[in-house]
Write a structure and sequence with these properties.
This protein is mostly helical. It has five helices and no strands. The protein has one domain. Bound molecules: protoporphyrin IX containing FE (2 copies). It is found in: Cell membrane.
């Protein structure tokens, strides 16, 4: 996907990574909050005010992730991403690459499938959305563990470059 192999990420790319990560993890942890309102609507019942409130939070945060993901993808094409650290095995590269691809897919796929279920009233989309939860929890854990492993065990700059912008960064 990359169009360039710079030394690091720009400030905007870094901020977007961490804001999206925080919102995404929040959604995974508190996603159940929308389930009761969605079930009520599907059964033709009126959800409680509290259930509607919880559902709205899930919907708005999820749609925010979608907008931020679109900006992030544009920046990714514009500024690229740094190469894998020197000395990384092909297996490690494949795991990191696959995790990144799944996470990029998820920050678009989760809001879109959720919106199809919620606004389109298509329960199958909600089922796919729910089934993705355990898979995405596992991928986020592997991704975060990989970043910590790189920092503390392999002692590469992989975590630092997602904290400190590259020196020539303009955005
Ligand atoms: C970052 C984006 C999102 C993530 C990570 C996410 C995650 C989740 C999770 C973890 C659940 C609960 C699964 C469970 O424990 O049963 C859930 C349910 C649900 N979400 Fe999302 N969600 C996101 C965005 C959205 C958006 C934008 C909408 C609507 C516009 C939405 C609509 C729904 C609906 C309708 C359900 C209930 C599905 C059902 O019960 O079949 N989600 N979501
Ligand atoms: C929760 C703790 C997390 C940590 C410690 C973390 C750490 C990192 C680090 C260090 C990188 C840079 C990898 C490199 O330059 O080779 C990175 C990249 C990335 N992270 Fe995370 N991350 C976390 C959560 C997330 C979440 C929740 C998502 C998405 C839902 C995510 C999506 C991505 C993506 C797509 C990349 C690739 C960036 C690119 O090449 O454009 N991360 N992450």
């Amino acid at each position: 996907m990359s169009v360039a192999r710079p030394a690091g990420y720009t400030t905007a790319q870094i901020i977007l990574h961490w804001v999206i990560a925080a919102l995404f993890v929040f959604q995974l942890v508190f996603g159940e909050d929308i389930v009761s309102a969605y079930r009520a609507y599907r059964q033709g019942a009126t959800p409680t005010d509290a259930a509607i409130f919880d559902a709205n939070i899930h919907v708005y945060i999820g749609l925010t992730v979608l907008v931020l993901a679109a900006i992030r993808l544009i920046l990714r094409f514009r500024y690229g991403a740094p190469p894998a650290p020197a000395g990384e095995s092909n297996v490690q590269k494949a795991i990191a690459h696959t995790a990144h691809a799944v996470l990029y897919l998820a920050i678009f796929g989760m809001p879109i499938s959720g919106a199809i279920a919620w606004f389109g009233g298509i329960p199958e989309a909600g089922e796919v959305h729910e089934l993705a939860k355990p898979v995405l929890i596992a991928v986020v854990v592997i991704h975060a563990a990989g970043a910590l492993w790189q920092h503390f065990v392999a002692k590469t700059d992989v975590l630092t470059r997602m904290v400190k912008p590259r020196s020539d960064a303009r955005a």
